[in-house]
TrEMBL record:
It comes from the Eukaryota. InterPro entries: FAD-bd, FAD/NAD-bd_sf, FAD_monoxygenase. It comes from Suillus luteus UH-Slu-Lm8-n1. This is FAD-binding domain-containing protein. GO terms for molecular function: FAD binding; oxidoreductase activity. Residues 11-178, 309-375 form the FAD-binding domain. The chain crosses the membrane at residues 12-32. Keywords: FAD, Flavoprotein, Membrane, Oxidoreductase, Transmembrane, Transmembrane helix. GO terms for biological process: secondary metabolite biosynthetic process.
């Protein structure tokens, strides 16, 4: 006799139609068909995304292939040229001209993609079992004695679901409610705000997407037209017609504090240019192309002790919002969605044991995503290092040490791929339910 339950499948509510939320809906639909109904709630009146470019690493590509969206992604992604030797690192804090520090030659060069392109493609693949609803900003949820969950939205409407997944980003209402309603024996009450509220890193990020043609008119041989700049970072998107530029300004004394005010705002080009007045002309030219740049207070989610509780789970930035120095946040959200979607869609998963599937997702994904977040932050510190206190005769030695450290930081991408994560997750689910590999 098969151990597969005859219980019906269930209803899943996903709060947040960003990259993670959309990908989860696509994954559930792909692997479960119409067996699971999905309510996808978006707080705004359209599906859009913050930020501009993302890197499509080999890990991210594997997830895209499994979800069946890779071919569409390939058509809009900007691929490295066949002659590319990898990102170029320059020492640029030199007013009369910087120099090429070193070139990193990774085994697999990532392509780049505009975030909105990924959002638009994911939306095209939403299954017929998914209902997408706009202007639905979750404020809180309540768990019922029956196990169902009542969602409360800012427009005073409510809805009921069996499983709730918070893909609602850095300022997640799902995360906030989850930790505020946990029993004291699960989490220390004094740590609730530490887990529910974002933490400022002390870094401001200035972002802009500029036309490649505009930069080419200033300098047709500008290095940013050919690849990457650090620690202003730039890379091409939209088949090379646009250049995504990110400039960082950090005050380490403010790391870990709460940020007051709007965390995203439009600023003047002069505010962006001022911290880089001592940098080489190539950097100044890049920043001179900024029009209506945005300033982001770089916030992260403090390392959480758990990502699920009962029938509620967290995904993507709601769970592990990280610094952008690996350009891995979107990729990690996609990996979350792939593993969680397959677990929810698994033939063994029923309403009676769905909490076991969520716990398996947490055990497989949370440690790795938090590892990536820690290492991304470390990479940022390496890229920000200051040479002003280094004796002149020791500069080259210090540069060589820093180069080796930076190159080593990218070795994580060669670790087990998301397919391996899924196989581990399936094995853990089977073990938790006392089922053999053959079901």
């Amino acid at each position: 006799m098969s151990l597969l339950s005859t219980n019906p499948k269930f209803r899943v509510a996903i709060c947040g139609a960003g990259i993670g939320g959309l990908a989860l809906a696509v994954a559930i639909g792909k692997f479960a068909g119409r067996d699971i109904h999905i309510d996808l709630y978006e707080a705004h009146d359209t599906v859009t995304t913050a930020g501009s470019g993302i890197a499509v690493s080999n890990r991210t590509s594997e997830v895209m292939k499994e979800l069946g969206i890779y071919e569409d992604i390939s058509r809009v992604a900007t691929k490295p040229s066949s002659s590319s030797d990898g990102p170029t690192y320059r020492r640029s804090k030199m007013p009369h001209g910087g120099f090429k520090w070193f070139q990193h030659n990774p085994k697999l060069m990532p392509s780049s993609l505009h975030r909105q392109d990924l959002i638009d493609i994911l939306r095209q693949y939403l299954p017929s079992s998914c209902s997408l609803q706009f202007n639905k900003r979750l404020t809180r949820y309540d768990k019922q004695s029956s196990g169902s969950i009542i969602l409360h939205f800012a427009d005073d409407s409510t809805s009921t679901t069996d499983v709730l997944i918070g893909a609602d980003g850095l300022h997640s209402s799902v995360r906030k409610t989850l930790f505020e309603t946990l029993d004291e024996d699960v989490v220390d009450p004094s740590k609730i705000r530490h887990y529910s509220d974002p933490s400022w890193t002390g870094t401001f990020i200035y972002r802009n997407v500029i036309p490649a043609k505009k930069l080419s008119e200033l300098d047709p041989n500008h290095v940013a037209l050919k690849g990457f700049l650090l620690h202003v970072v730039s890379y091409p998107v939209a088949q090379g017609t646009l250049i995504n530029v990110v400039a960082y300004v950090t005050d380490e004394e403010k790391a870990g504090t709460s940020f007051e005010g709007h965390w995203v705002s439009t600023v003047s080009p002069e505010e962006v240019q001022e911290p880089y007045r001592d940098f080489e002309p190539a950097v100044k030219q890049l920043l001179e192309c900024f029009e209506n740049p945005s300033r982001w207070a770089l916030q992260v989610v403090n390392e959480l002790p758990l990502a699920v509780y009962d029938r509620v789970g967290l995904l993507g930035d709601a769970c592990h919002a990280m610094t952008p120095f690996y350009a891995a946040g979107a990729g990690q959200a996609l990996e979350d969605a792939f593993v969680l979607g397959r677990l929810l869609a698994h033939p063994l998963t029923t309403l009676d044991n769905v909490s076991a599937a969520l716990k398996t997702y947490q055990d497989v994904r949370l440690p790795f995503a938090q590892f990536v977040a820690r290492e991304s932050a470390r990479t940022g510190r390496l890229l920000n290092f200051d040479m002003s206190s280094v004796a002149r005769e020791d500069v080259q030695k210090e540069l060589d040490i820093q180069r080796e450290k930076i190159v080593a930081q990218w070795e994580w991408e060669s670790k087990d791929c998301p397919i391996d994560e899924w196989l581990e997750a399936e094995r853990k689910l089977q073990e938790s339910l006392g089922v053999s590999n053959g079901l």
